[in-house]
């Protein structure tokens, strides 16, 4: 497999960093983009200490002026692979959900990925190669109470991915969405506490009765599973897999 230049958003920790570590081990060049530049730089330094070509940039995917400067921020790098991973969560009943927070979740997880893709697409078309991987969620397919903005954004991401697959069919460009059920990341750890409060139950009950109950396999998805799936999508074997929903859910949606 060729070595690609890969831009990953929300890459300082969690799913983004897990994917970065695996792809770095495979010899790819990484650009870690994150709102927290100090954390992104620290992660990039750790990767470089292991022999990985990695750099870090500060990027707020909800800030269109920053996306407009993407070429400048990346030092004019040719982005071969874009992994739209940046995400946030807010757990609340709709009637208590702040309007600005609702908008923020849509901007970060739907508008941002679309505009970042718009920014890198001309170069991908010119080089006749591109891989766009959107990190969705089991909530791209099903819903849970108290997560209206998150579920709306992740459902929208699936539709966006399918449209882009149709628009880029004549090029060697693919667009797919990874849809894991719960992955044990800092974002999910925060959700456990918030869900416990909203549902008036213990955090352990949240894990067992809300997060893992719908899954026949009753286990969190590992970062290695997501990273391995992302790596597969970069191979020639996956060149005709586009507009697809890659579901890693322990059997959740088979019910």
UniProtKB/TrEMBL annotation:
> What GO molecular function terms would the record report?
3-hydroxybutyrate dehydrogenase activity
Origin: domain of life = Bacteria
UniProt cross-references to InterPro entries, sorted A to Z:
3-OHbutyrate_DH (IPR011294), NAD(P)-bd_dom_sf (IPR036291), Sc_DH/Rdtase_CS (IPR020904), SDR (IPR050259), SDR_fam (IPR002347)
Which keywords belong to this entry? Oxidoreductase
Q: Give the Enzyme Commission number.
A: 1.1.1.30
Question: GO:BP terms for this protein?
Answer: monocarboxylic acid metabolic process
Q: Which family, according to the similarity comment?
A: Belongs to the short-chain dehydrogenases/reductases (SDR) family.
Protein name per UniProt: 3-hydroxybutyrate dehydrogenase
Q: Which organism is it from?
A: Neptunicella marina
Q: Top-down, what is the taxonomic lineage of the species of origin? A: Bacteria, Pseudomonadati, Pseudomonadota, Gammaproteobacteria, Alteromonadales
């Amino acid at each position: 497999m060729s070595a690609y230049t890969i831009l990953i958003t929300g890459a300082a920790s969690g799913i983004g960093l897990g994917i970065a570590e695996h792809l770095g081990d495979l010899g790819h060049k990484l650009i870690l983009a994150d709102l927290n530049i100090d954390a992104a730089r620290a992660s990039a330094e750790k990767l470089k200490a292991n022999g990985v070509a990695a750099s870090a940039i500060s990027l707020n995917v909800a800030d269109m002026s920053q996306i407009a400067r993407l070429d400048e921020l990346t030092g004019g790098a040719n982005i071969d692979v874009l992994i739209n991973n940046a995400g946030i969560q807010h757990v609340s009943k709709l009637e208590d959900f702040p309007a600005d927070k609702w908008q923020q979740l849509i901007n970060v997880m739907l508008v941002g990925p679309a505009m970042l893709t718009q920014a890198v697409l001309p170069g991908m078309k010119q080089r006749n190669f591109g891989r766009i991987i959107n990190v969705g969620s089991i909530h791209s397919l099903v819903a849970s109470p108290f997560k209206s903005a998150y579920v709306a954004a992740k459902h929208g991401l699936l539709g966006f991915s399918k449209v882009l697959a149709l628009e880029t069919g004549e090029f060697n460009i693919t667009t797919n969405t990874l849809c894991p059920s719960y992955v044990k990341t800092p974002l999910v750890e925060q959700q456990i506490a918030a869900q416990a409060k909203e549902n008036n139950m213990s955090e352990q009950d949240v894990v067992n009765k809300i997060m893992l109950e719908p899954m026949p396999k009753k286990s969190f998805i590992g970062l290695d599973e997501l990273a391995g799936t992302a790596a597969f999508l970069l191979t020639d074997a996956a060149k005709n897999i586009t507009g697809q929903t890659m579901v890693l859910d322990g059997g959740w949606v088979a019910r």
